[in-house]
């Protein structure tokens, strides 16, 4: 599990500096709610999650929603006391962990408190991640009735052996059933896949993408497997128990996924994300508005242990373990353990890094004169779209998406 970044101490009252007020009315506000509980820790996962065995009796999943609600109220008070205008929430996203380890009624209660404290934009996107084995049709109907609009299922693969290597415990046969339950409840559906697992053949990956498409989701994410130091899988690779990641294999699988998805009517809008026109909505409307808020560097408050927040160029992060997190919020204090104020160069770098990832592209006007000199060579090398460049935007080609980090490096040096 990664350590928290270095930073300045976070004040107990959570108040933000006056610099966050500049342009605040033009920035959307989102809420992220971290639910740090899982039934089993997957071997590749380095997220801030815990099993019941790891937490022991001192941390109650049953009472977690009350602490999340306390931080929601604390967030509203801090933003108001810092002088920020009241902004209804543009998006709310419950992630983890496995949010649906909590009862659906607890998730809807947290959302109700967020609505009471902040209000919601008309048409606000409200998403929860879910394990296909951790929900029932009734759960999904409770979520829909409580205001959720979207669910993102962690499918990862359709191949049992690949799921076993990833330590995923769900039954892949439950995915289409859960997707249909969500649709029946009126929820928009996203499906998440992972490619590049050791031992996964190209045919395995094609099967996974094809089966995911057959469930007719509105949105699909496909992430390359990244194995971080400290995870079980990293240790297995170091000992030679499983094969190392093969970048060429991952590139081939990405290209295959993009081709299969395009033929099925999906349009890429971010390197790892595709959407399609469905349920009376356009492909653009079925994009993840919450993730786009991150990629456009809008404001968001992260609720829960280890959650990160960003408002007006100030970033902070909460205590990782649920116990000290709970102690802080019950005392009416900020659960943040550190924060930083981003300087202009860092904010510019992050804008280039994030907006280059999306199909809407990065305005060339953001680049300095030296970086603009890289545009023509990048077009010639087939990494950015020439027609889009003439229109004033950096938009990656398919090859450019595979080499996105290299493109960014050339635009910021």
Automatic annotation (TrEMBL):
Q: What does this protein do?
A: Probably acts as a heme chaperone, transferring heme to an unknown acceptor. Binds one molecule of heme per monomer, possibly covalently. Binds 1 [4Fe-4S] cluster. The cluster is coordinated with 3 cysteines and an exchangeable S-adenosyl-L-methionine.
Alphabetical GO biological process terms: porphyrin-containing compound biosynthetic process
Query: Where is each Radical SAM core domain found?
Result: 23-267
The entry's keywords: 4Fe-4S, Chaperone, Cytoplasm, Heme, Iron, Iron-sulfur, Metal-binding, S-adenosyl-L-methionine
Q: Which domain of life is it from?
A: Bacteria
MF (Gene Ontology): 4 iron, 4 sulfur cluster binding; coproporphyrinogen oxidase activity; metal ion binding
Q: Spell out the PROSITE patterns in the cross-references.
A: RADICAL_SAM
Supply the NCBIfam families for this chain.
Answer: hemN_rel
CC per GO annotation: cytoplasm
Query: Where does this polypeptide localize?
Result: Cytoplasm
**Protein name as it appears in the record:** Heme chaperone HemW
The UniProt similarity line reads: Belongs to the anaerobic coproporphyrinogen-III oxidase family. HemW subfamily.
Sorted alphabetically, which InterPro entries does this protein's record hold?
Answer: Coproporphyrinogen-III_oxidase, Elp3/MiaA/NifB-like_rSAM, HemW-like, rSAM, rSAM_sf
């Amino acid at each position: 599990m990664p350590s928290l970044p270095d930073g300045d101490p976070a004040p107990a009252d959570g108040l933000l500096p006056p610099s966050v007020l500049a342009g605040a009315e033009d920035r959307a506000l989102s809420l992220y709610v971290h639910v740090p509980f899982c039934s089993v820790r997957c071997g590749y996962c380095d997220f801030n999650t815990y099993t019941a065995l790891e937490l022991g009796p001192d941390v109650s999943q049953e009472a977690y929603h009350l602490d999340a609600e306390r931080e929601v109220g604390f967030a509203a008070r801090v933003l108001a006391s810092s002088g920020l205008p009241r902004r209804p929430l543009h998006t709310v996203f419950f992630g983890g962990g496995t949010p649906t380890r909590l009862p659906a009624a607890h998730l809807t209660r947290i959302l109700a408190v967020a609505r009471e404290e902040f209000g919601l934009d008309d048409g606000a996107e409200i998403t929860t991640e879910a394990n296909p084995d951790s929900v029932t049709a009734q759960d999904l109907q409770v979520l829909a009735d409580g205001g959720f609009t979207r669910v993102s299922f962690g499918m990862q693969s359709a191949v049992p052996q690949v799921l076993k290597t990833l330590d995923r415990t769900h039954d892949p046969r439950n995915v289409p059933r859960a997707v249909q339950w969500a649709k029946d409840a009126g929820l928009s559906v996203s499906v998440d896949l992972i490619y590049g697992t050791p031992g996964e053949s190209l045919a395995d990956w094609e099967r996974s993408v094809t089966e995911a498409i057959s469930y007719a989701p509105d949105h699909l994410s496909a992430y390359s497997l990244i194995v971080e130091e400290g995870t079980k899988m990293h240790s297995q690779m170091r000992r030679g128990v499983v094969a190392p990641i093969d970048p060429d294999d991952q590139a081939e699988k990405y290209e295959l996924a993009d081709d299969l998805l395009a033929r099925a009517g999906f349009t890429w809008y971010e390197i790892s994300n595709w959407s399609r026109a469905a349920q009376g909505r356009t492909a653009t409307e079925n994009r993840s508005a919450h993730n786009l808020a991150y990629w456009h560097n809008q404001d968001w408050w992260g609720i829960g242990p280890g959650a990160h927040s960003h408002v007006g160029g100030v970033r902070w992060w909460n205590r990782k373990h649920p116990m000290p997190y709970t102690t802080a919020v019950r005392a009416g204090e900020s659960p943040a353990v550190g924060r930083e104020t981003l300087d202009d160069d860092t904010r510019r770098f992050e804008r280039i890094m994030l907006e280059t990832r999306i199909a809407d592209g990065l305005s060339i006007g953001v680049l300095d004169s030296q970086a603009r000199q890289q545009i023509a060579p990048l077009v010639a090398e087939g990494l950015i779209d020439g027609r889009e460049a003439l229109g004033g935007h950096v938009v990656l080609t398919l090859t450019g998406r595979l080499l996105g980090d290299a493109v960014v490096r050339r635009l910021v040096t």
